[in-house]
Amino acid sequence: MRTSVSISLPEELNREIDKVLKQTSLTRSELVRAALDEYLFKFRFRKLREKLVVKARSHGIYTDEDVFRRLS
């Protein structure tokens, strides 16, 4: 199922989108969907990382080196 969403964009952002569209074979909808998909992926990743950082710190893990030491 698809849902249409109406958004307003600042003119500068709209111009930037137009530039990208001229350089790709994407439609405006495809570009916006891809951008939202990437944003939501990063958002979910950051939320998961926040939870894991708290858990890691409770086990004395603060740096990448701490993780590598535990895995070695």
Protein model, in words:
The protein is mostly helical and 72 residues long. The chain has helices spanning 11-23, 28-58, 64-71. The longest helix has 31 residues, at 28-58. It starts with 10 loop residues before the first helix and ends with a helix.
**Sheet bearing the most strands, described?**
none
Mean pLDDT: 95
Which regions have little confidence, pLDDT < 50, spanning 5+ residues?
Answer: none
Number of strands: 0
Number of helices: 3
Q: Report the principal-axis shape.
A: elongated
Query: Roughly how much helix do the residues carry, as a percent range?
Result: over 70%
Rg (CA only): 20 Å
Report the sheet-strand fraction: under 5%
Class per helix and strand makeup: mainly alpha
Instruction: Give the distance, in angstroms, between the N- and C-terminal Cα atoms.
Output: 47 Å
Order of helices and strands: HHH
Please sum up the structure shown.
By secondary structure, the chain is mostly helical.
Keyword list:
single chain, 72 residues, mainly alpha, 3 helices, 72% helix
